[in-house]
Design a protein that fits this description.
single chain, Rubrerythrin, domain 2, 3-stranded antiparallel sheet, two-stranded antiparallel sheet, about 10% helix, globular
């Protein structure tokens, strides 16, 4: 089973060593997550600065 990692810059959750969205390194140390289904209508996505759908960590170290 692969370990889920979160991007240190945009908080996107992936299994890759680098983020597929922004290309920055990812970390195994993250807490909580939110799933954005429709970023155009989501108030949470607007507050977090998210402009794509997906799974995002709430806190990344």
């Amino acid at each position: 089973m692969k370990v889920q990692r979160a991007c240190k810059h945009c908080n996107y959750i992936t299994e890759e060593e680098t983020c597929p969205l922004c290309g920055n390194p990812t970390s195994e140390e993250w807490q909580g997550y939110v799933i954005i289904i429709d970023h155009t209508k989501s108030e949470i996505a607007k507050r977090m600065g998210i402009n794509v759908n997906g799974k995002f960590a709430l806190r990344v170290r």
